[in-house]
Design goal:
homodimer; mainly alpha; 3 strands; DNA-binding
Chain lengths: 118, 118
DNA sequence: TGGTTATTTGGCTATATTACCAAATAACCA
DNA sequence: TGGTTATTTGGTAATATAGCCAAATAACCA
């Protein structure tokens, strides 16, 4: 038996955590969240996304590359355009959970305001 | 009606994306993922977590502060110790989705190896 | 009060991330 | 082939993040 039970993090666990963190980090940017949401509605090419996101096309390309490296999106060459699609649609459910953090934060904030008043 | 439908991102949407990204970013670190998982088993004080994570206590304290600012954990003073607890337990389900990205990545890798061989 | 333990914060360095512009590459059309 | 459009990549600057050590704070005990 190796080190488990309250001890330091095992190498195996460490690797698992790093792998997960990489994927989460790939999602941790407003523009990339937008891209993922948009792709959930269907394939989009770099140009289309660029117009919507409103930053330089090279920046959008880099964001897409981050998502692709993480395995979240996949590209599809079609003539001179490259269409991106979501590879893991379940990523969207994930957002519900994030939303619940936001709701809780908002509630806590309200409560704080009320307390202050009394 | 304001700008929706294919146009650039609205200010409102932008704000929503930024709020979400902040929370996701707070989770995007191996040590913080570990902390969240550990807290899902029950309250832990900074010292306990520090022993497990294996970095300086000041670093763990900073990680906890990131999670707290994001609204993911909550602290509970108890004598000279401060116990942290998960504020949003659903955060854990979230990991299943991340896991499915990892599985898909592994499968793609396998497939690639097979293709190379033929 | 003075000492001890738990935790946070300031200051610093190293590294990573994001954005832009300009240039390179790729695919198509005339 | 030369031109045009779509996309990626190199280079660079600004900012953010993660880690450590040392010092500050807080709570307890003798």
């Amino acid at each position: 038996m190796s080190t488990t039970k309250k001890g330091k993090i095992s190498t195996r666990t460490q690797a698992r955590l790093e792998a997960r963190a990489k994927i989460i980090k790939a999602l941790a940017h407003p523009s990339r969240l937008f891209i993922v949401e948009e792709l959930s509605r269907g394939a989009r090419c770099v140009n289309e996304l660029t117009e919507m996101v409103g930053v330089d096309v090279s920046t959008v390309s880099r964001h897409l590359s981050v998502l692709k490296t993480a395995g979240i999106v996949q590209d599809n060459k079609h003539g001179t355009q490259i269409y991106y699609i979501l590879r893991i649609p379940c990523i969207l459910k994930f957002f519900d959970c994030i939303e619940s953090v936001l709701v809780a934060n908002a509630q806590a904030h309200m409560k704080l305001l009320k307390t202050r008043r009394s």
